[in-house]
Predict the structure.
Amino acid sequence: MMEVGDRLPDVTLVDTELKPVRLTEAAAGRATIFAFFPGAFTGVCTKEMCHFRDDLSKLSGLGARLYGISVDGPFPNREFKAKNGLNFDILSDYNRDAVRAFGIELRDFARLKGYTAAKRSVFIADGKGVVRYKWVSDDPAVEPDYAKVAEALKSVH
């Protein structure tokens, strides 16, 4: 599992416009939050991403960039982003490359045998691509402590 002090994996995902986003390049030069969520259009995931949407001006004021990441394809992610007015990119990890690289596989999600989603988790990388904060939940119903995420972000340069 990805730990504080590890370098971001060199994984490329696609955004909702099918543009490739390389995580190491996305984090270059500024603090970056990667918020993994199990599935678009689910209750807790919608609540979490909307919370990040509403806090984005505060997070941006701390110099941060934010990406939401799910294993959903880019097309449902595009609809999820539009429907919820999300003001940050949602990346598709449909091959589960990032989920494996970060060590956050949530196997048999929603009791669907063989379906792997991302564990709800938040990683903050500094501008050099080093993970400076990590929060991972084994329970997909548990949201991150948003105040702790913001506090951790203040200490990342």
About this structure: The mean pLDDT is 95. Residues 12-154 form a domain with the Glutaredoxin fold (CATH 3.40.30.10).
